[in-house]
Write a structure and sequence with these properties.
- The protein has 18 helices and nine strands.
- The chain has helices at residues 3-9, 11-25, 31-42, 44-57, 86-100, 103-109, 123-136, 148-151, 154-162, 168-177, 185-188, 208-224, 245-260, 306-325, 346-363, 370-394, 400-407, 420-429, and strands at 66-71, 78-83, 139-144, 230-234, 237-242, 282-285, 290-292, 295-297, 302-304.
- Strands 4-5-3-6 form a four-stranded antiparallel β-sheet, with helices on both faces.
- The radius of gyration is 27 Å and the shape is globular.
- GO terms for molecular function: RNA-directed DNA polymerase activity.
- Residues 51-297 form the Reverse transcriptase domain.
- This is Reverse transcriptase domain-containing protein.
Length: 439
């Protein structure tokens, strides 16, 4: 057993990986993922012990994952998301932790060319460096690597790593960790072609994918930041800054040539007489401002972009519509109890909206134009006013008690009364228990 493989198998490493995986899974919007994480946490030691035994014995197999063809906001296209079982994610995370401690990986991760999928990265730091680039360079080209995750060559990714590992067993584990097998392939029908099931592509959703892709693009990053130009990359989103238009397009050409060696490509921005093949590419003078990573960047301000703002309002609207469309109010008089976590009561809906707004605000807290935030608050208040008015109409026919329940308020009459004393008192008093036994 090689040194790196031994590190993956160590209980402290598996436990550390499990903590990271479970923390993320418990925040998932998927109820099934949260439930799986909860069950895994309840028997954590047992699961980790079983995983370690399988790894040491060389019998561990990654079980099939679940594919989701997620809708893109305001688009007809789909994004292939691969949701692996918790045990798979723990092993993948353990592999990632071992890889991240390799000397050559640390060297790549410390370079301030890419801010996605690195420990000390994030959108805020990417935008900060982007703003500094805009201050020093008069021209930019923004682009995106086409179908990056689904088209990146697996063999090239593995070759970059394995020449530094000298551990065949670890290399084989890594190879199987990035293979994609789906349990629900038949259900995906026409969307199954989106998923990286062959020699090209890695899973969006795997913790290993960003690191491996960053290693593949590192030499390209170095070249784009040499000489009199600079670039900022966030996974597959990239912006090039240059002293003039000619130099910017020269670097774009070099980028496309380098990507071509991996049979990848980047979008072209619009030019005179030629439209761009995607809104993901643009070019122009930095003093006029530009968009990058969901933000509008100009010399005067950094603001959430229009698409990001519309996305927030759409999420709030969707939560309101879902609550109003629910038929749960028809069951308020039944024994079925209300649950704050899943039932669309008014309070739970407002709670979800509040959390959505809070998370969005935190994601764009580095922005400087506060006027946009204040305007969004007004827009959301109008949405909530409409929601409250429509809710009142919907619940008008209900009695006071039913309206309270649907509001989300706990009623004392809904208390799960203990029957022991009630039976004793009923016996001594010669009375019968109320219908229902304990009420």
């Amino acid at each position: 057993m090689g040194t790196l493989y031994k590190k993956v198998c160590r209980t402290p490493n598996l436990r550390k990986a499990a903590r990271a995986v479970l923390t993320n899974a418990q925040k998932s919007t998927s109820e099934s993922t949260r439930d799986e994480a909860k069950n895994f946490q309840l028997s954590l030691d047992k699961h980790l012990s079983a995983l370690r035994k399988e790894l040491v014995a060389g019998t561990f197999k990654f079980p099939p994952a679940h594919g989701v063809a997620a809708k893109k906001a305001n688009k007809t296209t789909r994004r292939p998301i691969v949701i692996a079982p918790i045990k798979s994610r723990v092993v993948q995370r353990a592999i990632l932790d071992v890889l991240s401690n390799l000397k050559f990986v640390k060297g790549v991760q410390k370079k301030w060319f890419n801010f996605g999928g690195v420990e000390d990265g994030g959108v805020a730091k990417a935008i900060e460096r982007t703003y500094r680039g805009a201050v020093h360079y008069p021209y930019y080209i923004r682009t995106d690597i086409k179908d990056f995750f689904t088209q990146v060559p697996k063999d090239a990714l593995l070759a970059i790593v394995t020449k530094h590992t000298d551990d065949p067993q670890f290399d084989e584990l890594l190879k199987t960790a990035i293979q994609v097998e789906l349990a629900n392939i038949a259900e995906l029908k026409d969307y199954k072609e989106l998923f990286p099931l062959s020699s090209r592509g890695v899973a969006q959703g795997s913790c290993l994918s960003p690191l491996l892709c960053n290693l593949l693009l590192h030499d390209i990053d170095v070249h784009l930041n040499s000489g009199d130009c600079m670039s900022v990359r966030y996974i597959d989103d990239l912006i090039i800054f240059a002293p003039n238009r000619s130099q910017a397009f020269k670097r774009l050409k070099e980028l496309k040539q380098a990507l071509g060696e991996f049979k990848l490509d980047a979008y072209d921005p619009p030019t005179r007489g030629k439209e761009s093949d995607s809104s993901k590419a643009a070019t122009g003078e930095t003093k006029k401002g530009f968009s990058f990573l969901g933000c509008d960047v100009s010399p005067e301000a950094i603001s959430p972009g229009k698409r990001a703002r519309n996305s927030l309002l759409a999420k709030v609207d969707a939560l309101c519509i879902a609550a109003l469309a629910s038929q749960r109010h028809l069951k308020t008089g039944t024994p079925m109890p209300m649950t704050f976590a899943s039932d669309p009561t008014m309070l739970s809906t407002l709670w979800r909206i509040s959390n959505t707004v809070r998370a969005w605000g935190a994601a764009f807290s580095f922005c400087t134009d506060r006027r946009i935030f204040k305007q969004l608050d007004k827009d959301i208040e109008q949405q909530l006013a409409d929601f409250r008015r429509n809710w009142s109409v919907k619940t008008k026919s209900l009695n006071v008690v039913e309206r309270q329940r649907l509001l989300g308020m706990q009623l004392l009459d809904d208390t799960n009364f203990k029957s022991d004393f009630a039976e004793l008192v009923a016996f001594r008093a010669g009375t019968k228990l109320p219908k229902g036994g304990n009420k």
